[in-house]
Amino acid sequence: MATQTERHSTLPQRVGQMNGAWRLFVIGALAVLGFGIYSFWQEATQGMVVTGMRDVGTMGGATWGLYITMVVYFIGVSFAGITVAALIRIFNLDHLKPIARTAELLTVVSLILGGLAIIVDLGNPMRGVVNLFKYARPQSPFFGTFSLVVAGYLFSSLVYLYLGGRRDAARLAKSPSRLQWFHRLWAAGYADTPEERDRHDRASFWLAIAIVPLLVVAHSTLGFVFGLQVGRPGWYGTLQAPAFVALAGVSGIGHILILAAIVRKVTATPHRIGEAIFAWLGKFLLGMLLVYLYFMVVELLTLVYATPETEKRLSDALLTGEFAWIYWGSVAALVISAVVLIWQAVVRRWSVTWLVAVGVLANLAAIGKRYLIVVPSQTHGTLLPYDTGSYSPSVVEFGVIAGLFALGALLIGLFFKAFPALPIEDESEEVIANA
Amino acid sequence: MKYGMVVDLDRCQGCRACMEACKVENNTAQGHFWMYVFRYEEGSFPETQINFLPRPCQHCDNAPCVKVCPVGARFSREDGVVLTDADRCIGCRYCELACPYGVNYFNWRKPEKGQYEIVDWSDPDLEPVTGGAIPPYRNPDLDGLHGEEQRRTGGGSQAKGVMEKCTFCVQRIEKGLQPACVTTCPTDALVFGDKTDASTPVGRYLAEKRTWRLLEEAGTEPSVFYVGSRPPTHRSKEIERPKASV
Lengths: 435, 246
Description:
The complex is a heterodimer of chains A (435) and B (246).
Chain A: H1 2-9, H2 20-46, H3 66-90, H4 100-121, H5 125-134, H6 141-172, H7 180-187, H8 194-227, H9 240-266, H10 275-305, H11 309-319, H12 324-347, H13 352-374, H14 376-379, H15 395-418, H16 427-434
Chain B: E1 3-8, H1 17-26, E2 36-42, E3 49-55, H2 64-68, E4 74-76, E5 82-84, H3 94-98, E6 105-106, H4 127-130, H5 140-143, E7 163-164, H6 170-173, H7 180-184, E8 190-194, H8 201-208, E9 211-212, E10 224-227, E11 237-238
Parallel strand pairs in B: 1-10
Antiparallel strand pairs in B: 1-8, 2-3, 2-11, 4-5, 6-7, 9-10
């Protein structure tokens, strides 16, 4: 028993250590995930009639609902992680390195969740997995949302995460533990010689350069899914794609702030994930937030100043009608976030608690805004004399989405139990930083 | 050759026989109306007017639903008919949102659950009439493969989780017949044929009468042409709201 404890204490950052709180977290997440799988099972066997979605037009429903809202949200969250990681690599922002792996993992996990959220939204999920690749049509904006995101974006992010962690894996593979096989597998013969290190460095640099345009394209096509459609009021517009990228940045950096605070607490590393890192993330978030608020004001002005008759019913529903509480609630959350960040920037003191609160607010607002892009255009302001429709998500939809969140938390938790969240500190790190 | 349809609104009396004929021919599920007739009101007393507007799929030459389909299940044929391949559709429902006309219907549940339950088919008194065959009756024409492409595109209630819409009755036109709605219309308000040939009834209508198309501004180039009356506006209000749903 004593040797067991000794063996485990050799791994840094509580890797491989299980305590009561960890077990409680896993059991809780598994329970929610189980409910999500049960909900999806109902949908798969009985058909999508168990969701709140129905056909637009004579049936008076919305054919895309909470699932697509969350697809857009999850893929949006993925934006910031790999962007931050790539910026760290391209501009050698070494002081941010402690959060690089957390950010990369966030991208990988949220892309997996986004892909799964598309699958659960399909009437034929299994056929979808095959046909979306087999018969992929790049002419469809949906191509960017699934085929490009999963095949290109997720894969390159995984490779990036893999390359970045290989040195730590090689180091961990030397210490005996129950997870040694995993670290050996990851290291795959890497011995951390100067040539190897140099080759990795160059590979990840060029990969980072390649990922940045790829992710701008992927997120823009997500905006094109809506922005290229004239058939729905409120969708067609050049602003959709850039606004999607901006809001993706807001929700994603908000998420990194939350995750960085959790990692710092769980691994007990406040000295490494210091105030400077939070300050940098806070400023980045403020920048994205201001860009998005600018887009929003421009959009709002266009909407109220010169509304075409067909769009008026939609804008009324958004600004003063059925959806007003979501619209103004999201706007309030974004404005409050911006005010808090500006205030912290002015006094030059960045409080982790406030930043986490801003991260949560920004993400709630992002979900709200995504919902408002997807749903109201289907139920309000149709171009033929159909009556106004309605949509409210069913328990099954909420269950599936809760299950996806639980899966994400579980994946992140498990990963950081098997692998250190921060790069392992040692003297050779200095050598590389100075090289 | 390109198929087209002319809807003569001066003849339409809003009887909705075409909707019924479509359902019988194509075995569409409950709440699905591949052909739908708007009955809407405009103006206020004493200047009010009630109008009727049959709305099949517009079989657009520049179909937005074909453009957005991620797997090519929705496609345009050489003869202008826009169809859905039930064997390839993954059920993402993007076509439904790209279409400004609201003509797409998704199979939200298993087709056998979408059948109309008008009578109790297990009733022994019905045995002499049905000869033991328990509905749903399936029109064998709907199960075959159609067109040069040989794809499964005919009829409704094909499978759970796939999109369906008006096919211009592809199973009938390939036999040289007219679509079900056209043959049923008691006032000959619906005319179907080759829109590029001036000698056909459709061609003559196009040559002689002033026609308009629905949502011309959307740039979809519909193959359904309307004669008489005028397009509905945002002030047109349906006089009854369809309650049929799933």
